[in-house]
Design goal:
Length: 306
């Protein structure tokens, strides 16, 4: 460890009320977000992680999400404290999770268990539903605004005469009704194999709740499918194993499949537009991924195999 510091705690666990002493070590910047991870240790030698999001509202949001997720009984890093890293910057302290990313060591049985864990998260997390309504998701207005802006924007893949616009138009009515009929659940909102740490016994832990949101259950499933398409793992059994863990003995209905297709394309379109507007160096990758998503939808795998 490079140095030891004492931090004031804003929202601590009972044993860390007031202050927490930590030895600070390696620092790692998280791609895309600008957040920083600092590996650290308590006085007793327990490994912990300090996460510094760019903005304080992001730190508060993730701290709340991590605590909600832990309350459901699924395996997540233990929330230890929300701290003043500096007088003007908040940070989250949580337990360090030993293991390998599932992305580096794919395993079909673990993927089934991840599906079960996400189902448990969706069923047991207590949320108010306020953001679901205030964001316009419950009335479909949130999604409609995006689709309208893309159709009249400059990204050719998303414009009104594009393949994207045509397919979204075919899926919109079912999704509109779906949002109006369903209650939201707690969503991780960026579920991919890099967010899953597997210990030596094969037990998965879900990390990084910075993007959690109130959404329908199909949003998390759509995100997981999107990342499998992006990393060229969609034609393996990864998704069907994950889905079998989530659905247990049930199957997706045709309406579920239509709405899953909507989420997959909406998630990809939003990412593509994000990189397009920022003239990002990641734009070529986002365009390639978007083409993969369109091809995946047009070969009707969702309707045939899921």
């Amino acid at each position: 460890m490079i140095e030891r510091q004492r931090f004031d705690t804003i929202d601590p666990s009972p044993k860390n009320r007031g202050t927490i002493d930590l030895g600070l070590g390696e620092r790692v910047e998280i791609p895309f977000t600008g957040a920083e991870i600092i590996h650290a240790a308590t006085i007793s030698g327990d490994k912990v992680v300090i996460k510094k999001p760019l903005r304080n509202n992001q730190a508060r949001h993730e701290w709340k999400g991590l605590n909600i997720a832990e309350s459901t009984g699924i395996s997540v890093p233990k929330p230890i404290a929300l701290i003043n890293y500096t007088p003007d910057q908040l940070a989250i302290v949580s337990s360090y999770v030993e293991g390998d990313k599932l992305y580096d060591k794919p395993d079909s049985d673990i993927k089934v268990e991840v599906g079960r864990q996400i189902k448990k998260l969706h069923q047991n997390a207590q949320i108010s539903g306020e953001n679901w309504v205030s964001s316009g998701r419950s009335s479909f207005v949130y999604y409609d605004r995006y689709i309208f802006s893309w159709a009249n924007g400059n990204a050719e893949e998303l414009r009104v005469d594009s393949r994207t616009s045509l397919i979204l138009g075919q899926l919109t009515d079912a999704m509109d009704q779906f949002c109006k009929d369903l209650e939201p659940t707690f969503n991780h909102n960026d579920l991919h194999d890099g967010q899953l740490i597997v210990d030596e016994k094969g037990n998965p832990t879900i990390i990084d709740f910075g993007n959690w949101i109130e959404e329908t259950w199909l949003n998390d499933i759509g995100y997981h499918l999107f990342h499998l398409v992006r990393t060229d793992r969609v034609h393996t059994e990864d998704f069907t194993n994950f889905l079998s863990g989530y659905m247990e003995s049930k199957r997706l209905t045709d309406t579920d499949k239509s709405n899953l297709a909507f989420y997959l394309l909406f998630i990809s379109s939003r990412a593509l537009n994000y990189f397009y507007r920022r003239h990002s160096s990641y734009l070529p990758i986002a365009r390639e991924t978007h083409k993969k998503v369109l091809d995946h939808l047009e070969d009707e795998t969702i309707w045939k195999d899921y």
